[in-house]
Predict the 3D structure of the following.
Amino acid sequence: MENKLVREITSMDVDFSKWYTDIVKKADLADYSSVKGCMVIRPYGYAIWENMQKILDGEFKALGHENVYMPLFIPESLLQKEKDHVEGFAPEVAWVTMGGGEKLAERLCVRPTSEVLFCEHYKNIIQSYRDLPKLYNQWCSVVRWEKTTRPFLRTSEFLWQEGHTMHETEADAREETLRMLRVYENFYKNALAIPSVTGRKTEKEKFAGAVETYTIEPMMHNGVALQGGTSHYFGDGFTRAFGITFTDRSNKLAYPHQTSWGVSTRMIGAVIMAHGDDSGLVLPPAVAPIQVVVIPIAMHKEGVLEKASELCEQLKSFCRVKMDVSDNSPGWKFSEYEMKGVPLRLEIGPKDIAQNQCVLVRRDNREKTVVPLDNLRGEVERLLREIHDGLYQKAAKNLGEKTYTATTYEEFLDIAKNRPGFIKAMWCGDRACEEKIKEDTNGVKSRCIPFEEEHLADTCVCCGRKAEHMVYWGRQY
RNA sequence: CGGGGUGUGGCUCAGCUUGGUAGAGUGCUUGGUUCGGGACCAAGAGGCCGCGGGUUCAAGUCCCGCCACUCCGACCA
């Protein structure tokens, strides 16, 4: 990478946190608001979210899911129907106690997640096995009263989707749980160009009320993990608590098996921290609001604007494009769109026009390609694909290089202290070891038990007893 | 929730030690010249100095309280 061209952005090696918030602000993704812990998502940031939504929504629907909308408020009595669930969420919910100037008979919480609302509704509409599966999803915002917040990564209110499904059998529900995890994993890979470690959460880390929680854990540039999406299998715990029954194929009453799964605007944070550099944001083409920015050079010269507009029209037929005809100098524009992470820049000036060509510059590595105009579409499509692949490979390399193996506790503590990243190590299955590790390392937690475990040793890295599983460990946002 | 830091035109900050007319750079507006890596000239607009109290003839500056943001921990998607 050349010297950074944007002075205002703090270098990521100097202060990664500052670098992150600088990008959020300088790339016009979000702004602070007067509501503590809440942010304004600005048009450029929201456009990224809309692209993410569009792709995921299509995947959900292709698998038979239907979108619905549930209420914002949950009566206290409803939230309390499932014991583990309420214990998990109660500490971080916001309560409404007044309405129209009068104290409410029962206070309402602002939804932190909507399991109980879906259950209440499913109770009314499920009678027979013929009504199953029920595959609902909603796009909405939820509120969790966080103590410390950071734009996109952790805000008091955030946008997300939550899928809630009901199934006839445990096997169906378990299959759905894993199916949706795969949807997330593929989305991270194919749309966000972010590789991740996936697997099952330990008892200690799983969702409040779930039987199993599966997770996708991408690694950020600095080696810190971000819980990127989760998919839960609930068994029939909620359906029993809510009295949701159906008549099964043998004419007996049965409880359906349930799942839920969600991803949030946190994914924007993941994109920033997985791909960004000292010049700003770097967006994967699939979700970039602008995929190609057209910069006319020497706009006042005859024919330049006309040619640039013509190219713009041509590009519009197959990608998202913007032309900047503002009065700023070309150099200013180069920096501006690098800061905003636009994957490809197209420069067109008098010299190019004379030779019937233009210059394409990649955001990720600043590589310039001179392209004959006859071949513009092919080259743009090729470069966008290569940028995606390049970003994925770079992130995969980072994940590989920052994943360590520990077979002794000394080794484990040494890595945890000195090398940011994931640690693969054996574990006995005892929660006490997770707690001890977290305490001894000042914050390293189990990320997940991967689907394909390696046999690294016979004994738990922490206590020395017989090992049950291989676990990925790491710090998280 | 504990510990630190910071709040002054849109943004980045100086001024505070030692109280005495509100500053710079950048951005913005208008006009002109420029244009292949953050161009230049000229003229303008823009400030309850985070909020509230106090001390003083006089507070951006000193004292007390609060709030917000931010970093490091604890907690959590």
Chain A has 14 helices and 23 strands. The first helix of chain A runs from residue 16 to 26. The first strand of chain A starts at residue 30 and ends at 32. The radius of gyration of chain A is 25 Å.
